[in-house]
């Protein structure tokens, strides 16, 4: 049965297509130690809901989720590097883009910077939130 793991797989596979992305990538529940002085991205899937699409016995359900991508750059290098990464992430997850995994199609509804930049030495970071939906049986 398809579910949130298929949504995650589609989103994470697509993350590898982000133009200009650093090679250091932090995935959920995988040990990661950032390389000092190198930019990196952290990916977090936040399931929002999994609900039937109607009251009939079709078994079709809608999954809504947020995929958060945090872009980290070394401090004291100015905001442009983090902003450029955020723009590349947003471009990679354009609204309407269909992403697939194991036959499950995930549709991007929007991608946007959702918080102010965070100055947390030795990193400066910007977060991008990607809202997606999928209909699965």
Structure write-up:
- The protein is an alpha+beta fold.
- It has one domain (4-136): 2-Layer Sandwich (STM4215-like).
- It has two helices and seven strands; from the N terminus they run H-E-E-E-H-E-E-E-E.
- Strands 1, 2, 3, 4, 5, 6 and 7 form a seven-stranded mixed beta sheet that branches.
- The longest helix is centred in the middle third of the chain and has 13 residues, at 80-92.
In helices, the fraction of residues equals: 10-25%
Number of strands: 7
The chain-level mean pLDDT equals: 92
SSE ordering = HEEEHEEEE
What is the domain total for the residues? Answer: 1
How much of the polypeptide forms β-strand, as a percent range? 35-45%
CATH topology title? STM4215-like
Query: What characterizes the major β-sheet?
Result: 7 strands, mixed
Q: From the coordinates shown, what is the CATH architecture?
A: 2-Layer Sandwich
Low-confidence stretches: none
Radius of gyration: 16 Å
Ends distance: 7 Å
Q: Give the CA-based shape.
A: elongated
What is the CATH first-level class name?
Alpha Beta
Q: Please identify the structural class as seen in this structure.
A: alpha+beta
